Each structure stands twice: as structure tokens, then as C-alpha cells.
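Researcher: I'd like a structural prediction for the single chain below. Treat it as a standalone chain; there are no partners to consider.
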Amino acid sequence: MKIVIDDSLVDIDESLLVRNSFKARPLICDYLRQRETQLQVDVYCGSIDTQHDCLLNTDVVIGIEIIEHLYPETIENVPYNIFGFMKPKVALFTTPNSECNVLFNMTEKFRHDDHKFEWTREQFEDWAYNICTRFPDYKVAFYGIGPGPDGTEHLGCCSQMALFVRCDFYDLTSNGCGDTTAEGFSYNSNQLDLPQVMKIQSESVLTEHVIINKESASEKSTTDDINRSISDEVEEMIVDMATTHIDMESYRLVTTCIYPKNMDDRSQEQKIFDEACFHLSRYMNLNDDHYDADNDIIKVPVKRIFELVYKFTSDINEFRYVMRKNNYTIDEDDVFLIKPMDTESDEEDDMPANCVDALPRQVASSDEDWD
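Model: Treating it as a single chain, here is the predicted structure.
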């Protein structure tokens, strides 16, 4: 199966993109350790609210601290472009939490002079729930990012995130993952159990889980009240649009960067075998840990080497088959039995095929190649 990752970066300021497009190019390390999958980075000049064919077939949309920079007429169109036209599997948006502004001794109304607004947690949740109402194929979860000092927990975190997951993708990834109503999480028509989908485990970044269980929030409001239309302030920014147009001239490709890819034409069996031999050679050099002096043999558990070749196979039976096919002995305890190599012995021809001497190695250059 051919895997291609196409990363499209979009911004409306073309001059800014041109000046910084070099940042999308591969680094030296990308050439030294080349990728096993193809990666292409396309940098476009365009608007987040405008539909274009280049946005189709996008799996993930990431909008980091962007919506607060949008004018009302732009933010009106954003949900229709992303959730109605692009329809990604996952979309996440972050925006400042205005409740924390009291901690910054600000002299201006907003944290940045280009911000058009800054939302409280409730306003941000209203915006997100409204999207799920308009586009019922999506569920949403909320997280706080960047906790404040002790004693300011009531203000929430410095920034906030809404993560939307398309229902069919959520159902696919959560199938068989266990209880979707684990402690600390809620699940209903609009909300999702995020760890079942994204497996995010980063307490330093995502620190505050603030999904509201609508069914149990009677102390704040009734279920009907929570499902009310969004607040007047947010309603002014989000209006129903009967249709949106596709502007094929609005997106311009600024640059394309194709990252180097390792062209590995080895067979699957050869990849498994070569990787296993590499790790076995490392273990064989640790004779004190794996050497059985009584039987003059090196013992390495099969499972230990198998765990190191995971990127080539997840089937331990396939792994055993490949190693036995290449004359490695595996005993009834699922352990490799390898005869140590005697570097001082002249009887190398009598050594078993499964000894360390059978491992792949570089062919040494002849002395004539040197000056």
C-alpha cells in the first residue's frame, strides 16, 4: 500500500508566506534519516472561509489561534467551508480564553492588536456546539491549554481547544477500544470521548478536560436550555448561509516542498531479517547478560527482538518463520540459541549457520583502494 502524506499550509498573507516559505523545506536531518513514506508540503495563499478543490480529501484541519483574527463575515463562512465542504475526519481549533486576561495586567482590550474578539469558555463552547447542531456528523470535546497559577483554577486555562471528530471516524476508531464512558469523560449526541479517538496523553499541554455532560448539568440549566440557540454575542458572528460558492481563483500555490524518501526495494522478509540481525548482533555483544557458559551458547528471547522489528511486522509467527527460514534456531522456550563466534579459531567452516558470523555485514574494502 502506497502511503502519501500531503501537508497543505494556508494563510491569507502572500508576502508573509513568500518570506517564510523556506521554513517548509526539508532540513539536513531529513536527508540523513529519510522518511519511509512520501511527504509533500504545499503552501497556499488563500482564506480559511473559501472553498477550493485543493482542500478536498483533507483528513485533519488544525487552526491554532486563528479564529480570533477573523472578521465577522469571515468567521460566518468557516464552519461551512470546513465541516460542510472539506469534511475532515478531525478538526481542532484553539483560541485565547478571555477569562484569564485579568492575570496579564493588560492595558489593551485584547492580547494582540489584530484580535477582533476574545471568547470566554462559555462563548467558545456555544460556537462549537452550534457547529455540531448545524453539522450533526461531528462530535466535539473541549480542553484547556496552559493552566494559570495556583488559586486561579476558576478562570480556566490561558488558551482553550475544541476538537471535532467526524462521527463515522469516531465510531471506527473507538470500536473495540473499551468503555466509552470512562471516569472523567462524558458521551452524548454532541460530545465524544477524546482518548478513545486520539490517545492524547500530554498533561503538560492538555491539562484541563472540560467536556460538559449536558444530561447532568441540571444545576446550571435544563437540557432544553443547554440546547438553546447560541448567545446573542456569538449569534451576530454566525449566521445561516443557504449556499456558498467555490472560488477557484482565490487559492494560489506559493511553493511545494517534496521531502526525501528512502527507496527501499527489499522484500518484506528481508526487511524483517535485516532488522532482527542488527538487534541480535547488539545483544550478542553483551555476552555477560545473554551468554550461557555451561552450554557455550548465547540465548536471546524471541519476544525481545520481535518488539524491536515492530515497524516491519506485528505478527510474531511471521517473525519466527523468517528467522527459522534463515537458519536461526528457536527452542521450546521461544529463545534464540546462537553459537558464539570464536575469532581465534581456524575452524570457521564448521560453525553453524545460525551463529553471529551469519549476520549481514559490510564487505571490507581491499588495501589497494587506499593510497
